Amino acid sequence: MPNEDLDVGNLEALEKYRSFTRYFRQAERESRKPHWWNTYHKHTNPPAEPPTDIGLPRERLSRAKEIKERKRILRENRQNAEMERAARLRTGQCPSTSLPAPAALGVQLLPLHPPSLLAVLIPLEDVRAEWERTSGPFHKQRVAKHCGVFRDLFKGATFTPWVALSVQYSQEDEHLVPVYYGNMVTPSEVREGNWEQPGAPGKPGFQSPCSVIRGRQRLPLDLVTHKSRTNIPGSDIKAGKEMCHYLPPFPAMGTGYHRFIFLLFKQHGPIDFSQDARPTPCYSLKMRTFSTFDFYTKHKDALTPAGLAFFQCQWDSSVTTTFHQLLNMREPMFEFVRPPTYHPPQVKFPRHQPLRYLDRYRDTEEPTYGIY
Q1: Helix 81-89 vs helix 63-79: angle between axes, to the nearest 10 degrees?
Q2: Pair type for strands 181-184 and 303-313
Q3: How far apart are the two ends of the chain, measured CA to CA in Å?
Q4: Residue 307: CB partners within 8 Å, gap ≥ 6?
Q5: Where would I find the beta strands (DSSP E) of the chain?
Q6: How confident is the model over 57-95, as pLDDT tens digits?
Q7: How far apart are CA 268 and CA 56, in angstroms?
């Protein structure tokens, strides 16, 4: 029992708390410690099982080499007098030294107004590359988990997107609409299916299907595939086989934001996806209904999720055209029906109530205030 370690034979020798505050503090500290017996909190709140990891294994980096490289960069930056003076005084006027110039260390000096002032520029591309290599995959996994991507796609199973998936939609005016990790994009901007993947890894055997989690279409939670390509050799998307042609987004009016998710799977070799192919053209929502969990379960021995990107969008005027011209159906519209105002049962003698109290229970809209 919890008190079996106490010697109750000599109660006078035990330490006294002498106040309830000290006892309460000690009880709080003891309650936070792990105990071998089953407490009420453990019984009512059992620990959740850890989620299943279905992604690629993590490449363990040498912590010693990483710290050594960081110390080397910091040491070179501290020894660079030109960089230190430009960052502190914003003046590039300093005698030349034999130490490496700021440009050699990846730092540029930008002339400001007046021209005598200089500002130190940080190479953002190098910073992003470092972020993608170190903590970026964990940040993406956290955002996807917060938005319910893993819950709705893989029924709780998670993975770390180690492969950087960069998706951009090209526009007519050579403008690119990027897809990050939950950014807002309008359906008009992604109406054309000219999406590119400039940051795809140059390794053979990758597949990149695009899925979207929709609201209530046929089932309580349906997934509709908008575009799918398989057996992509390296980063050449056009060389892959198209399993389903592109369908513009069509979030119905009044249903809020919809998530459009790009998944990148690593293939261990060419796979026959003929059973998962859709006819061309295919504008039937029943045929486009897609289950990512069933698809992965079917090919889990040959596929491993490696990359992730998604955006959110809501209704705009282009969705009406998609419903009428492509899907050939009436556009569904949803509105919020406000429930009737709740009033407690009327009492015969309403104490401490204003005169407007009677207005709640009248059959007409005629107010009683000002009449009596």
Answers
A1: 70
A2: parallel
A3: 72
A4: 161, 162, 163, 164, 165, 208, 262, 263, 264
A5: 108-111, 118-121, 167-170, 176-179, 181-184, 195-196, 206-213, 223-232, 241-244, 258-267, 303-313
A6: 988 878 898 899 889 988 988 888 887 777 777 654 433
A7: 12
Could you give phi then psi for residue 248, rounded to 5 degrees?
A: -60, 155
* Alpha helix segments (H runs only) across the chain: 20-32, 40-44, 63-79, 81-89, 124-133, 136-146, 149-153, 285-288, 292-298, 317-321
Using CA atoms, how far residue 274 sits from 204, 223, 230, 263, in Å, is 20, 20, 10, 19
Rounded to an integer, the average pLDDT of 130-157 is 92
Q: What angle do CA 262, 268, 273 make, to 5 degrees?
A: 65
Architecture per CATH, domain 134-326, reads as Alpha-Beta Complex (3.90)
What is the CA 114 to chain-centroid distance, rounded?
43
Residues 255-314: tens digit of each pLDDT = 899 999 999 898 888 888 888 888 888 888 888 888 889 989 998 888 899 999 999 999
